[in-house]
Amino acid sequence: MQPAVAALDLYSSTMDGAYYDDASLTPVVSCYPDCNGDAVLNLSDFGCFTTKFALGDPYADCNGDSALNLSDFGCFTTKFALGCP
């Protein structure tokens, strides 16, 4: 699911004006290998990662090199093996 904003209230009784530029929403990932966000590392996370990889989701760029390739699978496997804090 893509992040979305239903409403944004920027009112201030003490300011005459404000300008915002290049705003974005970024999901917070507390444990990268917990791909499905259920707080349990298991086979479902591998399925989630594989699906995101197949769909070209930026999440699947595990090593951050802007290319989705075999290195990302190795990176994900390593992070999975190290677990979550």
What does the model show?
With 85 residues, the chain is mostly helical. Helices cover 29% and strands 0% of the residues. It is built from two helices and no strands. The protein has helices spanning 43-54, 70-82. The chain starts with 42 loop residues before the first helix and ends with a helix.
Q: Which class best fits the helix and strand makeup?
A: mainly alpha
Shape: elongated
Count of beta strands: 0
Note the gap between the termini. 25 Å
List low-pLDDT spans. Answer: none
Helix and strand element order: HH
Major sheet, described briefly?
none
So how many helices?
2
Strand fraction band?
A: under 5%
Report the C-alpha radius of gyration, rounded: 18 Å
* Average predicted local confidence, pLDDT: 87
Quick summary of this structure?
This protein is mainly alpha-helical. The protein has two helices and no strands.
